[in-house]
Predict the structure.
Amino acid sequence: MNRLLVSVTFLCVSTSVALVLIPAVLIRPFAPQTPSDLEVSYLLRYHNRWLTLMLLLIGLSSVLVLWQTMRRRLAHVLLTSSCILLGGFAVLSWQNHFEWMFHPMKQEGFTSAEKASHVQSSDMVLAVEAHGDSKAFPVPAMAYHHLVNTQVGGEPIVATY
Amino acid sequence: MDGRILHFRLAGINNQNFIMRDEETGTWWQQISGKAILGPLKGRQLERVAFDEVSYALWKQENPRGLVLLADPKLEKKYAEADWEIRMLRNPTVTPVDSRDPLKPRDLVVGISVGEVDKAYPVQKLLTENPVTDALGRTPVLIVVGPDGRSVRCFERIVAGQTLDLFRKTGSSLFRLVDTQTGSEWDFSGKAVSGPLSGKSLPRMQTLKDYWFDWKLYHPRTSVYHAGELRRISGS
């Protein structure tokens, strides 16, 4: 019985880790992506929140039983590590690590050209005009945030760079 | 999309071009094309909004009452430095490189599409041959680099049914183009400021400043200015 539960725990941990790491590895900068890389990553990211949660519950139950029956210190250390990994990767499945690197803009706001001291004359901007509304998106900011959800002349747009 | 406003988040990267995800459906969209590649809205196309990529100085001049996106005060120090484009050149690319390509992967081009015709204009050529007169399919075009030496615009060379040939006016402190058909003078916004066509505007065409590797990936049948027609890469 112990052996079965140890296998279950191990499977839960390794599956959870794989569910989170596979898309992160497939979709990384400076590596090529194939259409199937994208498809696999999309599916995993779509499902891995509830899957890692389920694995966490199964794994925790398994660990609870094993904890009583296995007395050795090493066993307890390994069981604790398993819980930490299961919990940690369940949390990670909710994270968007791309936004760790490039935080989204908290609140998009605009100012008039005369009041804008944060843009240099030589900076490039993406300029949009619609229905009499004229807006400029400085490239140095856009190159970091990558996208800004906003509107121009009442039209909802997303500015991207 | 379908009357619903979508809100986008950064979601990933696909061969050095980023993927975004809409919060409403979780669909993944490719940044450069605006096309949904995976998810419930797969295959749908976001409508491209006409935009201009110009220097701030030029934009301020042309839009004195315009609004500028504010910086995020906590993140401003992470924004791109002035020399970011130069440092970016050292980054590797991951798309296949054809030895017959007239351009290197990170060469900058201005890409223009008219109907089925795509063409890439190397920025270096645009700077030395300013302005460039060309035709895309049946559309006569003019690609101009502005007085700031950085802003690039493309215009259709037809006004009131007449095709014009335009050249830089030399000996003028202000940036001016002159057409040989009527002798009218035009400014960088494409408006005729003097002459018989005064007040008229050259129709603006959308351009995209991009790296050659990315433009080629999304426009596999593109030709390159001055290199003749690019042979279609077999197997792609």
About this structure: The mean pLDDT of chain A is 94. The CA atoms of residues 19 and 48 of chain A lie 6 Å apart.
